[in-house]
Amino acid sequence: MDVRRFDEITNELDPPFAVVDLDAFDHNAGDLARRAAGRPIRVATKSVRCRDLLHRVLRTPGFAGLMCYSLAEALWLHREGLSDDILVAYPTADRAALRELAADPAAAASIALMVDSVEHLDLVDAAVGAARPDIRVCLEIDAAWRPLPGLHIGTRRSPVHTVAQARRLTESVLRRNGFQLAGLMAYEGQIAGVGDAPTGHPLKAAAVRWMQRRSAVELAERRAAVVRAVRALAPLEFVNGGGTGSLERTAAEPAVTELAAGSGLIGPTLFDGYRAFHPQPAVLFALPVVHRPAGRIATLFGGGYLASGPVGADRVPAPWRPTGLRLIATEGAGEVQTPVVGNAARGLQLGDRVWFRHAKAGELAERFAHYHLVTGDRLAATVPTYRGEGRSFG
Q1: Which fold, 283-389?
Q2: Which residues partner with 238 through β-bridges?
Q3: What is the pTM of this model?
Q4: Which of 67, 142, 151, 191 would disulfide-bridge 161, Cβ 3.0–4.6 Å?
Q5: 319-357: per-residue pLDDT in tens?
């Protein structure tokens, strides 16, 4: 990616602004489909948060359906015609959205809710009552690795870990009027979301690879056993697994019928540390120089777009171009100003741009109302993000 080309294409724009390199985005989509080896990929919308980009990837061979992070979001995207195959990846306690779902037979037939306990079923019943179309549900299975008692490696999500627990929850769903079992999901965050080649940390890399190999073997066996047990009680339309970082591994499991991915479309900095794939940076943002406090320091306007997750240096935005810039440890990326230091700062003048990459894929869309879409040597379009359409589902 030639930053001079980006500067020329966006010359008339005043930073801060965000740009999507459509050529990189399309390349990343094609590479995800290649890695999925024929398994359909459900698009994780929270990693994109822009309807135009969601439309674009859904037109790409290998992608089918959406994985939303909110029921309200799912209802909106369904109403806007993006998809009639939507999985809400997280359980909902949004009673107003549940009532809207129950009042719309087409939405109820297209959207599946995540559940991992009888209490989730109770919550739905309490919100919408019995006079409703069947609510489609997906069982979430805990994909974390538990090699020793009390040791939990992975995301803290579902309490359903064993085959027996999955069987009991399935039986509870089947006994209840007003619910239809649609699918099963198990997200292996300790594999899909942890880079196995962190730069400059060979011992950590070796430990991560050791953990991921053993966790993957355990999960493949347990996931297959859970799917067999559930299918002995009721049919499943889909079994979802994986994420950007684990597509090859999960696609090789016969029990899995579809994958999920989103971050790999964008290529944020947290996905630089993987051996199996190298997404191109597809979304960048530019900040203007507004202070020159010293020869090797340039201070930029805004920029405090920190990523969620554990606090650490890997959650801050990274200066990308000009090369050779870094943040100052005592200030970092600030809400109103972000100083950068390095030899490249000497040549920066007031009004010049510094380009950044965000640490996570979709969260930048919460900061900008629009994405400027660039392809080849031209600005193809300016499109709204969720924020630009007045939508926030956090």
Answers
A1: Lyase, Ornithine Decarboxylase; Chain A, domain 1 (2.40.37)
A2: 183
A3: 0.95
A4: 142
A5: 999 999 999 999 999 999 999 999 999 999 999 999 999
- Does 110 have pLDDT greater than 80? yes
Output the DSSP codes for 130-176: SSSPPEEEEEE----B-SSTT--BS----S--SHHHHHHHHHHHHHS
Characterize the bridge pairing of strands 63-68 and 318-321.
unpaired
Domain with CATH 3.20.20.10 in the chain: 22-266
Report residue 200 CA to chain centroid gap.
Answer: 26
Residues whose CB falls within 8 Å of the CB of residue 235, separated by 6 or more in sequence, listed in order: none
- Residue 60, Cβ density class (10 Å: 0-12 exposed, 13-18 middle, ≥19 buried): middle
Please list the helix, strand and coil fractions of the chain in percent, rounded to the nearest 5, in that order.
35, 25, 40
Residues 169-199 have pLDDT tens digits of 999 999 999 999 999 999 999 999 898 888 8
Give the C-alpha separation, 341 to 319, whole Å.
10
Q: Tell me, what amino acid is at 144?
A: A
CA-CA distance, 313 to 306, in Å (whole number)?
10
Cα distances (angstroms) measured from residue 77 to each of 82, 91, 108, 243: 6, 18, 13, 21
- The CATH topology of domain 22-266 is TIM Barrel (3.20.20)
Report the pLDDT value the prediction gives residue 38, as an integer from 0 to 100. 95
Q: Which tokens hold the place of 84?
A: 């009639």
CA distances from 327 to 245, 323, 356 (A): 27, 12, 11
Q: Is 80 exceeded by the pLDDT of residue 2?
A: no
pLDDT at site 1: 59
Residues of the chain with CATH 2.40.37.20: 283-389
Other beta carbons within 10 Å of 165? 18
121: phi then psi, degrees, rounded to nearest 5: -65, -40
pLDDT 10s digits, 254-272: 999 999 999 999 999 999 9
Between β-strands 337-341 and 326-327, what pairing exists: parallel, antiparallel or unpaired? antiparallel
